[in-house]
Write a structure and sequence with these properties.
This protein has a domain at 47-117. It has helices at 8-14, 18-21, 48-51, 53-88, 90-94, 97-102, 105-116. It has 7 helices and no strands. It is mostly helical and 117 residues long. The longest helix has 36 residues, at 53-88. Residues 1-15 have a biased composition (Polar residues). Residues 58-85 form a coiled coil. Residues 23-35 have a biased composition (Low complexity).
Amino acid sequence: MDINKLNSSASNSFNKTEETSKGQKQSGVSSKQSSPNTADKVSISDYKFRKNDQLFAKVELDKLNDSASDELVEMNKQVSEYQKAKEVSPEAAQNTEIGQKLNDPNVWEDIAGKMLK
């Protein structure tokens, strides 16, 4: 197909966009303020966290503290379980989660790698 032989009616349909390319308002298109879509947009500029970086940082720090606290509670449970099992017998201590980690060569390899860094 040769571009020079295109139908002129097809080229006329592309010329209808001249109004919008010149920045003129098209008839039949509602203005931006009356558009129902604007209510669906989410703006975070109204939240107090955007206006107060210190408050945002405090909330984030509290989240991290809660997470670290939960991990510490879990570790304390594991240590107390290991200590109770160790009082019973060394074999029982090896069956606990910490006992298994103490005898795992991969764990010792990870510890050594962290010490070398």
